[in-house]
């Protein structure tokens, strides 16, 4: 019983000493305007990094999920370029050897017109694949640049656009619209 009274008295004294102690209150003014440090060179850095190594600009922007997309697009286009180039050379070499009088076993069943058509087909596909490689490489650089610029874009919670349903007083039908709200 004495222990319970002693513990209760101890807690009462320590609890009240903090209540009755004099403390200095420091008022801190809260800045309502949050200053964002905007670095105008961030988009240029991201574009440069993507130009040096595709996907590095996306890593700089911390958009890691885009890196496999970049390498998938460029890698697939590069694969088709190499495959079409190999088949183009195969058809071209078979046609040249046939003109020299040598018959190869791999494309012996095709006539000269089919070998020429095959060359044109694979040459066209090879050129398109090269164009896709360059286009995806440029798209990688543009994506890194735009994404770095949009990261610095100020999106405030006080600004909103919401869909609204409101009745039309004349026709008594429901109208659909958008409201633009800005809270000060």
TrEMBL record:
Residues in DUF5683 domain copies: 40-184
Pfam families cross-referenced by the UniProt entry: DUF5683
Coiled coil: none
Alphabetical UniProt keywords: Membrane, Signal, Transmembrane, Transmembrane helix
Domain of life, source organism: Bacteria
Keyword hit for Manganese: no
Signal sequence, renumbered to the chain: 1-21
Transmembrane segments: 64-82
InterPro entries to which the protein is assigned, alphabetical: DUF5683
Protein name: DUF5683 domain-containing protein
């Amino acid at each position: 019983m004495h222990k319970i009274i002693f513990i209760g008295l101890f807690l009462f004294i320590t609890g009240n000493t903090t209540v009755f102690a004099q403390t200095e209150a420091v008022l801190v003014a809260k800045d309502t305007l949050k200053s964002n440090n905007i670095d105008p060179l961030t988009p240029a850095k991201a574009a440069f990094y993507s130009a040096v190594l595709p996907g590095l600009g996306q890593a700089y922007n911390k958009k890691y999920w885009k890196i496999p997309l970049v390498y998938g697009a460029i890698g697939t286009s590069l694969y088709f370029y190499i495959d079409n180039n190999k088949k183009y050379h195969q058809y071209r070499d078979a046609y040249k050897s046939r003109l020299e009088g040598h018959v190869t076993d791999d494309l012996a069943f095709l006539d000269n017109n089919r070998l020429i058509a095959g060359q044109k087909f694979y040459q066209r596909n090879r050129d398109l694949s090269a164009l896709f490689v360059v286009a995806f490489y440029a798209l990688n650089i543009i994506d890194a640049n735009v994404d770095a610029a949009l990261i610095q874009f100020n999106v405030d919670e006080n600004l909103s656009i919401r869909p609204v349903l409101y009745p039309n007083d004349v026709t008594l039908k429901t109208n659909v619209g958008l409201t633009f709200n800005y809270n000060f």
